[in-house]
Task: structure prediction
Amino acid sequence: MNSRLSVLLGALCGILIPFLSLYLISVVRPELLAIQDYDFSEIRHLNIQLMTVVMLPNVALFFGALQFEKDNFSKGLLGASLLLLVALFIYRFLL
Result:
């Protein structure tokens, strides 16, 4: 596979997998969606915990790709994960 295509595929997976994980969490635990009546700081704290948990499949996929020596895919996945972590950092400390 072309190295540029592999990096783009890794970045696409790195962006989509957290959203898929968040969807699966909301299906398994629907009560997490019904917390809008609480204080904003509590909602923000829960959102940060959820965003951290949905990043875990990216970590597993990253180490799996490294195990199978798919370095270019790992680069794209790592780049997308870092982009999401920057967004999490901004949400946590700057908003």
In short: Residues 3-28 form the longest helix (26 residues). The chain has a mean pLDDT of 90. The two ends are 41 Å apart (CA to CA). Helices lie at 3-28, 40-54, 56-67, 71-94.
